[in-house]
Specification:
Two copies of one chain form a homodimer. Chain A is α+β, with helices and mostly antiparallel strands. Chain A folds into two domains: about 1-270, 4-Layer Sandwich (L-amino peptidase D-ALA esterase/amidase); about 280-395, Ubiquitin-like (UB roll). In chain A, about 35% of the residues lie in helices and about 30% in strands. Chain A has helices spanning about 55-65, 85-100, 120-135, 140-145, 200-210, 250-270, 290-300, 305-310, 315-325, 355-360, 390-395; strands at about 1-5, 15-20, 30-45, 65-75, 110-115, 155-165, 165-175, 190-195, 220, 230-235, 280-285, 335-340, 340-345, 350, 365-375, 380-385. At the A-B interface, helix 2, helix 8, helix 9, strand 14 and helix 11 of A face helix 2, helix 8, helix 9, strand 14 and helix 11 of B.
Amino acid sequence: MKTLRGGITAPLGFLAGGVAAGIKKRGLPDLALVVSERPGPIAGLFTRNQLPAAPVLLDRRHLRYRRGRAVIVNSGNANACTGSRGLADAEEMARLVARGLHARPRTVFVGSTGVIGQPLPMSRIRRGLPTLLQRLRRSGGRDAARAIMTTDRRIKEVAVQDRIAGHLVTVGGMAKGAGMIHPDMATMLAYLSTDAAIAQPALQQSLRHAVNRSFNCISVDGDTSTNDTVLCLANGMAGNPTLRAGSPGFAAFRRLLDYACHSLAMQVCRDGEGVTKVVQVLVVGARSSAHARRAATVVATSCLVKTALFGEDGNWGRIMAAIGRAGIGLNPKRIGLSFDGVPIVKGGTGLGPAAERRLAQIVRRREFTITVNLGQGRARAQLWTTDLSYDYVRINASYRS
Amino acid sequence: MKTLRGGITAPLGFLAGGVAAGIKKRGLPDLALVVSERPGPIAGLFTRNQLPAAPVLLDRRHLRYRRGRAVIVNSGNANACTGSRGLADAEEMARLVARGLHARPRTVFVGSTGVIGQPLPMSRIRRGLPTLLQRLRRSGGRDAARAIMTTDRRIKEVAVQDRIAGHLVTVGGMAKGAGMIHPDMATMLAYLSTDAAIAQPALQQSLRHAVNRSFNCISVDGDTSTNDTVLCLANGMAGNPTLRAGSPGFAAFRRLLDYACHSLAMQVCRDGEGVTKVVQVLVVGARSSAHARRAATVVATSCLVKTALFGEDGNWGRIMAAIGRAGIGLNPKRIGLSFDGVPIVKGGTGLGPAAERRLAQIVRRREFTITVNLGQGRARAQLWTTDLSYDYVRINASYRS
């Protein structure tokens, strides 16, 4: 497996571009388009938020036909809580792109991200689209990735390649997300492309596998959005024999997609709003996976744990207090905590000044792992969380102004 | 009903005091004692955290005998995650006080609040106790209330009085709590006193009623602690006929206790770490109380909602997004939002620029109400939440240093 440049346009047959259509203030790029030269199978996963945005409603409907050709995404406006007008606007976006590409509207998918509750400025999108269609190019992945950013400080791209059944197969991708990041589904948009020939059910299964181990394992602020979407479009141009679940090369393809999703998820975490640290929370020794997941989530979302991480304060008592309210049965005398492998708590109590001194060093690292051993069983779960800083508050207190 | 000065020593027969025993740095008061001249029935409620601190374990055991005489509380150290040594220390605190008062150890209750995971400096507590016993006085409520503070900026006291069956009955109280505030149980210590003559079961029932409507309805940061405790000690010195559930005067007594708990809970909220606003989240039109409570909790604990409150940004989309992830079935077209009675969202969509302008005024208020109407039924729930500010991060990033 080898990483490449090129992001979402690294696989064969993908074009992309981005323009400033005037949805965002100050002339920043805010409209992105990704197109495959050929239609192909598409897989998707969406937010479980009960108030999904209009583009999510539209994409779910289009995904029933399982074929994709293009994805149009605007930033600066989420087109959420916009009622029937919002849905009509999303439909129009798909229709306009389909017309420009001579494609069927149902093969065009739509994404929106930004402020909730305001109608899309459709006249600006209509004006921007012709330019965007003209700017589509083989090296346009970066422009598209830039145009889907909101509070993101960094462009998030990935491309990775491997030989499958004698053919070079590439997976590319881009993502946006910095706030409203939490499992199910890590509150963001991520788009993946591949030139693999693959049956749609195998693609959907691979995507679910990759997302469960990546985007569904990161938490910045515990909030999930109305717009979370992950799509993966495959055009078959690598020429490999069509992959199906269990066929030769399927595992290799899954590794590519897993890698791409994990890389994008970590980029989202590291670029989280105000984030100075990314910390892995690993819970082991749980009675069940659900218990492990629950304990990891409570630790990963505790404001007190996250502010202590920001302050580089090895206040492990806050982790204990968080585990204690996870709503799972505990035996205090069996609980252990370690930081990057250094034991800090054993049998539910602290290991004293020497351990605290080592802890004080570890919490200064930019990335480290907190391992919680519940001492009850063999199940485990891991999440990545971030610290909670002044900048998180600054960014979110003034998001709309 | 009339409010008084005097806090926890306002009822007849209560003495209190506070000293600086050296548990906290910089010579701040950190040891408080409240004593009734006579033992009497005591009621208590404790954290549901599965890793309760040593004093909680001790108090639960003492509460089985249902009689109380005194409460000793230290701040600066939570005596949590301290194993068997922690329990022995809590037992010694009760024993030392009992010896000083010629009381039974099981009538002495212990509270601790502060850093988790460090052993109590028992030698300092032993040295401080004789002075504390000497300083007990009728007007010592304020000294005790000061000595239980940690990051609190303000002393939290209440006293309220009414005539019950021809006798003046008084309820007094004190509380500490500014961080780790969340329902079940609002992560704090609260101690109440009354001179009412009341049977223990009636006292326990009244306390549960009052706590469910006060301390269990406030959230500052979503974290519940290992030490939450509410105790109410009654000494019967008002001379009223003994109150029992349903007896004349019982409802009047409950009103006193409800008032005292609500007042202390609101003081805790207003003094929450870094708090600049206290906002009531009222969910109506839910299918069940559990649904209403769940929706209110998700809104009240969302970092994005809370930072928007701090920024005085009427970003109602974040409230919608929070409701959407509450895990309850929703019909987007029936959801309404109003702020202090002004409709902002109807049928799931925003009401436009005029409503937004009125909203911009309301979010500048120090206290206001957000009403969420789910449009599904008749159940409701309310919580009080606070904003999330730079100061919350500052206080919690450096708590131990």
